[in-house]
Write a structure and sequence with these properties.
homotetramer; about 350 residues; alpha/beta; Rossmann fold; Dihydrodipicolinate Reductase, domain 2; six-stranded parallel beta sheet; 9 helices; 15 strands; about 30% helix; globular
Chain lengths: ~350, ~350, ~350, ~350
Amino acid sequence: MSDPVRVGLIGCGYWGPNLARNLHQIPEAELVACCDLDPQALDRMRMLYPHVITTSDQNDLWGDAGIEAVVIATPARTHYALARAALEADKHVLVEKPLAMSSQEAQALIALAEERQRVLMVGHIFEYHPAVRKIKALMDAGELGQVYYIYSTRVNLGRVQSDVNALWSIAPHDISILIYLLGEMPLSVAAHGGTFLNGVIEDVVFLVLRFPGHVLGHVHVSWLDPSKVRRMTVVGSRRMVVYDDVADEGKIKVYDKGVYRKGEDIYGEFQYRVHSGDIAIPRLDMTEPLRIECTHFAECVRQGRRPQTDGLNGLRVVRVLEAAQASLEQGGVDVSLARG
Amino acid sequence: MSDPVRVGLIGCGYWGPNLARNLHQIPEAELVACCDLDPQALDRMRMLYPHVITTSDQNDLWGDAGIEAVVIATPARTHYALARAALEADKHVLVEKPLAMSSQEAQALIALAEERQRVLMVGHIFEYHPAVRKIKALMDAGELGQVYYIYSTRVNLGRVQSDVNALWSIAPHDISILIYLLGEMPLSVAAHGGTFLNGVIEDVVFLVLRFPGHVLGHVHVSWLDPSKVRRMTVVGSRRMVVYDDVADEGKIKVYDKGVYRKGEDIYGEFQYRVHSGDIAIPRLDMTEPLRIECTHFAECVRQGRRPQTDGLNGLRVVRVLEAAQASLEQGGVDVSLARG
Amino acid sequence: MSDPVRVGLIGCGYWGPNLARNLHQIPEAELVACCDLDPQALDRMRMLYPHVITTSDQNDLWGDAGIEAVVIATPARTHYALARAALEADKHVLVEKPLAMSSQEAQALIALAEERQRVLMVGHIFEYHPAVRKIKALMDAGELGQVYYIYSTRVNLGRVQSDVNALWSIAPHDISILIYLLGEMPLSVAAHGGTFLNGVIEDVVFLVLRFPGHVLGHVHVSWLDPSKVRRMTVVGSRRMVVYDDVADEGKIKVYDKGVYRKGEDIYGEFQYRVHSGDIAIPRLDMTEPLRIECTHFAECVRQGRRPQTDGLNGLRVVRVLEAAQASLEQGGVDVSLARG
Amino acid sequence: MSDPVRVGLIGCGYWGPNLARNLHQIPEAELVACCDLDPQALDRMRMLYPHVITTSDQNDLWGDAGIEAVVIATPARTHYALARAALEADKHVLVEKPLAMSSQEAQALIALAEERQRVLMVGHIFEYHPAVRKIKALMDAGELGQVYYIYSTRVNLGRVQSDVNALWSIAPHDISILIYLLGEMPLSVAAHGGTFLNGVIEDVVFLVLRFPGHVLGHVHVSWLDPSKVRRMTVVGSRRMVVYDDVADEGKIKVYDKGVYRKGEDIYGEFQYRVHSGDIAIPRLDMTEPLRIECTHFAECVRQGRRPQTDGLNGLRVVRVLEAAQASLEQGGVDVSLARG
């Protein structure tokens, strides 16, 4: 096996420690440095990983030739500047979602990574989740028939953000899953939200996404909910799938259910027959998705490959977020994503 | 006790038999006649209630002086004409939801009931549901603090309609609950849907309702879903309630949870503190809501009282449906419900 | 189709009304008479089935030539005398579980039914339950491999009996299912219980049943439990089944799970490998088991067939109950069921 | 704060890494050495804690004056010899459950710890679990009324042992909880088991425990079950508690339920009334119980205090296990625990 990729982590607050743990554990990478503005966060890292360099100055990472790649897990609004600086210092970059706060910024990062010949990857973790990949495999194999609509609920209490709203904070997950599963961009998006806690930032957002072929997507995100729910339902003409990420047993249930037209009644109206068969709960690989993601990043760096969730993938999600934000600001109007 | 109200039932298909059973069982009413166009439906009624008159001609009911009241459980598009005929025959009327297919029709029924001095009631059953009444009591007592938003999911597989879409078929429940709980009409509604089965009728509809005081309502209805879900979440500033109508134990969970502002951080941004306390599952009266509804109707007839879900109550729901339908037809634009 | 069997029901208290409803609804039977000592119970029956004869005197049934069969749903201690009287009056008999309070009584009923050429059936309803039948089919097809053990929990709050203990009141269900699934009698039984409410009658009983081939059965019954649980687990060498009768969706889950020997370790001790594959939730016939049971009874009467749960079947369960009762009274010793 | 206790860990296989992680994280302790016979286990420890001494020779720990205390997480049959050696080397000892394989061994350890003035603690983790402590507090406050019986199910697939059976491997948890909650030893125990995988070692064990005051305990343990279940039910005369350790939300549910005598019926038999009120889900401290346990050990070492789960506590559990093993070997007879 080739040498582990030497990685510096920027941002050791909420999500960063999970990245650190995985980077520390996988043989493909080696966590060599941690950077955070909060000295307590660095203390915690030092206690867990005493051999790791800690610093509150990002420049220490840029100048360290021993660091090949950086992983950025900082507040969303800082992603662009940090990723830019990292690429300019010729580091490979894995940046948490969202890739950036505008498509312009995302495109700039893509161009820069291209120019510097560096890996640019965004942490759309659910594309590495065995459950999501299983659903994708079922869809690609035609098991679900024609996909009618997909809806997703991702709510919880807590992690209230004050720099970005629930759309930018939570919905990147659902948007990236939808684009991944359907294999294409939505044509348009409408967004409705509520700004309850401080009157400015949306705590709750509902998205309606229109995909080609009349496929409908719906997303509900919130950080103001009594229960932790992470559930997605894919309704196809032949089978339906419920993916409950919080379930212990049976994260994915495949329902052999469908509604079929059986003719017309005496008034000339269509009659339907409901078919309701077995339910299957496929066994899933239990590897932690973040471990798969980190390994993939390290392999792409080492082998010069383009990651599954590359800059373009990140840009697509940012474009949808941007359009959804515009819809939010215009009271829920449908915003087109068709390219001009 | 006064004499039982002698009731004729029109429509013995899907929901009608439940009405028949309750009308048969409560001492306040007596089921004396059943009317349906389908002879098999009448056969079933005769087998269960051999003493009951059965007929396929509604005129038999209008002319029968022994029938004081009729209950109408027919397809939605027939409600108006049947209720009108019943009132013109001086019968008291309980009509299933929706009261009518337009606010104009609903207003005409209200006027006619007024003129004929008859009870006009609509079967918004959830206003008689002990769970919904309990939530209302908690809200009225200030237990939830300020209500931020309420969202509802009412989906299932089956009962595909060919005369009305999922909005008119299912959403009247959610709309009537929202208006009941919040005690006022929404200011506007936006609706998004998908017409998967036949390309014309919406199988799935999402509603966004804006109430006074920045309260947000969201409704998801569908007859194209793998699982039966009937869940409503009320998010307040002090407590949150989840009402799961499908749960065996604990249909209502009251979460002592809230998010409180705890000051500003060093960047001047608001910081929030999540409070997460006990969960309470209040005991509920286990009486079947339909029994409560039927008893209420009979008592209103006998005592000349105005029912909780009177014609005006039915009109309010129809007005929201009408606006939502207009929004659906205009691609999801916000339709105002403010009176001209 | 042949004429419906004319049936009289004795016992209209707790379970009787369910029998009445099914006997009323199936075309194979006709409910013609109801008998109970409680006038209010008869009032309720008359209200639901105005055409039915009601009486508080069982002799009215014995002497009525229009009654071909009786269904007995009275307290357990009265089963024997009533079934005996019914058979002596040449009625076919369906008696609720347990068939009798001793194997001697059960044998006497079998002999009498033989002599009078009448159908004698016991209401071991779970043998007519599609879920139990599905498990039986999986076992018979070898899908589970070698069956190791089966355990069952059937607890609830309420239905506290003062004539019989939880063993005789609840455990007949579990015992009949175990004998049905395994196709043989246990070799021995040990029973442990607690008499909490009145110091004499067991409210809670645990049974340990030893079947041929080292198969182990365990049963936990109680009427003193906070939750309604009706769950049975069948552990086989190749697959395992959980049957949760209270579940809305997926009463039966078939786990592709097993433990396999993979050799010995360096100390000569066996090493095991756990296999954990997919879970399947087979679709089940949704017919009410009591309806299947009632139909089966009527068909056996009309066609002169021996029912699946005939007198001998009832005797087997009584013999296990008898042995378990003896164990209870001797502090839990193992009581053999081998024939002397 | 005083200096952290310098700890050596023996046994880095299944449970050891959890101990290592907690010992590493709490400020009250410092993990300084790891010992295991398996070089791969040591490799993993070294990777996670590069500063820690690793060795396959326990003598390296005994002779190291820098090690004040050892934590023993090895197979059960080795506990006694290792704990003995540690105490003889004047180390404080935390040994995983069971403390030893016989009461004689346990007593010898207690005497030795006394003699050497060292802390001897056993890892009965559930006595440190906030859920169990909450139940204890409810019981002590009389909230449950008179406790009738407690039953526990602790089953899973896997962790098949070849040195000890499911009784010694799993049931120590349940036995320690029962003794802790009820505050006294059982009077007797009966045990029934099944040896399915290799014909010698019990994979499944059922225990019946009789406590003073007619309180009944029942325990079901197994490593041969399709689902992970860890549930305990406490039935009291006034309230009942279900503790589901696998539940995400609401590990403890307190049911305001009870059965009350309401007099006698016309036959002189007792009549009962079921009371069924609210359910409460109290908020629990979310600290990992193992962290509480490790902190308690370190504090006892530093402050010279006797731990809650001291040697005597460990002995009590071993005495019950011993009696249960005797019962198993005698086919389930009741084995008395009264002192001679």
